[in-house]
Design goal:
Layout lengths: L2 H25 L4 H59 L13 H24 L9 H24 L4 H26 L4 H31 L3 H19 L1
Helix pairs in contact: 1-3, 1-4, 1-5, 2-3, 2-4, 2-6, 2-7, 3-5, 3-6, 4-7
Length: 248
């Protein structure tokens, strides 16, 4: 099987966790406190993955300059886009309570915001396969584990806001497919480019992911589980750290 197709399938697998989380939220009654715990765990998983996998790989390929510029650039671009979308109804897109608006304009903003959150992660999967052709399965697992609570929390909020099953599963199913395409593009589009460019791209994704965690995932986790959010986040971090060392 061509490596590009493999990259797309790995991205699709990681993105499918969004659909899994949405299905659990839609068909089961999940306490918001439990959702917050899962979101905390997912935050820790992603922080560990970007620290020990993405940033380390970016530094190995391009050194401090490309990594630093890319990391800060990714955070700046994500923050600017997130502020724009938040003002148009997507501010609470990951919230599991009744904060989400149900009007059509906010629905579009939520969809675009979900893409903004997911595409950097997916591109990283494809980029990780450049050179050796083997996927960074630690990154895939980390992204999959973090996508489950993301889909769960957002879908729970959408259901509370009165959105239909067609909208919810159409949104997350579409994003899962786009995640696969983004991963394929990450491999095909960046293969053969200089190491500095690949390093910068990986760091851009890492910066965007960390900004996303701080802006959207951690606030949801803290709001409902503030007594234990830090402990559960640490548990997620440790789980991904162990995976990274076993994979090394």
């Amino acid at each position: 099987m061509p490596v590009a197709v493999q990259a797309g399938l790995w991205g699709l697998l990681a993105g499918s966790a969004l659909v899994l989380g949405a299905a659990v939220a839609y068909f089961a009654s999940i306490p918001q406190r439990l959702i917050a715990f899962i979101m905390s765990f997912g935050s820790g998983v992603l922080i560990s993955a970007l620290a020990f996998d993405l940033m380390d790989e970016a530094y190995r390929r391009g050194g401090f300059d490309s990594t630093s510029l890319g990391f800060l650039g990714g955070a700046v671009v994500y923050t600017a886009a997130n502020v724009y979308l938040s003002r148009r109804g997507a501010k609470h897109r990951k919230r599991s309570g009744d904060q989400q608006r149900s009007d059509s304009d906010s629905g579009l903003a939520i969809a675009i915001g979900a893409l903004l959150d997911g595409i950097p992660e997916s591109i990283v999967i494809g980029v990780s396969m450049i050179g050796g052709g083997a996927v960074s399965w630690v990154a895939v697992i980390a992204i999959f584990l973090s996508n489950v609570p993301e889909g769960l929390s957002s879908a729970s909020g959408m259901k509370t806001a009165g959105r239909s099953a067609t909208y919810i599963f159409g949104l997350w199913g579409g994003i899962a497919v786009i995640s696969g395409i983004a991963s394929l593009i990450g491999y095909v589009g960046f293969a053969g480019l200089p190491a500095d460019v690949i390093a910068g791209t990986t760091a851009v994704a890492a910066g965007a992911i960390l900004a996303m965690i701080a802006d959207t995932m951690i606030p949801e986790a803290f709001e409902m589980a503030h007594d234990y959010a830090g402990l559960v986040t640490v548990a997620g971090f440790l789980a991904a750290f162990i995976l990274s060392k076993l994979g090394g």
